[in-house]
Input
Amino acid sequence: MTKIITLLFLIAGLLFSTGCQNSPYSGRDIGMVAGAILGGVAGAQMGDGGDVNVVAGAVLGGMIGGMAGSEIEQRQEALEAAEAQRQFEYEQEVAAQEKLESEIEALEDQRVRDAVARRATTEDVKAAEREAARVEAELAAKKKAFEESQERARRIQEAQKRIAEAQEELAELERRQSGQ
Output
């Protein structure tokens, strides 16, 4: 019975001592608690099962468990840091690729302009400007026709609404006159 009480006090002491740190559930702390429990159980089973064996096993198990937990935590942090570095490098590569594609597109546009500039004459410029003016005038005419047709449709709908309202009033007036 005293072994169990001693073991419980030991575990409680370890838990309270690790709870005062910034990260109460760090790998070292978890390893220390697990090692102390397992070491205490192993100490109770070894030798004559005295309290000294339980305490020695718990202390030794706690130390070994703490070191193992720290090692595991350090490896996990290293993996997380490596993953963050890979993500950063990937984002840098994507940004560089996008920049390169943009530069290629700008160079292609410049190449086309240069090719047009080498063979274009004053007459070509005038013809292009006349065609642009013609297309713009056609667009303006179609826009105007569309807007006018929309206005006519709106006016027709408004007139139909007024007709319906007038018909309702007329029917109501006729019912009143006939005494219904």
